[in-house]
Task: structure prediction
Amino acid sequence: MNEKLQDFNLVEEIPVRWGDMDARGHVNNTVYFRYFESSRIALFHKLKVYEDMEEIGDAPILVYTHCNFKAPVIYPDTIFVGVRIVSIEESKVRMTHSIVSKNLNRLLYMKRHRVLVLC
Result:
């Protein structure tokens, strides 16, 4: 795990694939949302959220997301994607993600907020 992400609930190491890049030679901005999804799902598995969903029939639904890009990611690289729960309200879970490049050892993305609602 990268020390820049030590305060996160979960950090996932993800290799950057050649196919993640676009014509400009860096990871396409839509792919970041897949990276975030992967870390969010891993955290939900760690917290056994999906086991509870089967029992109660509720599932989290993404209602808001946003991303601030700080620097491009290019192939080959490995990234560390951190996910942290910011708050849990009555039916909302607010999360944030950050990405650190293994090659650059710097924060590439931060303050990405995601709001999930249990329905």
About this structure: Strands lie at 10-15, 60-65, 68-69, 78-88, 92-101, 106-118.
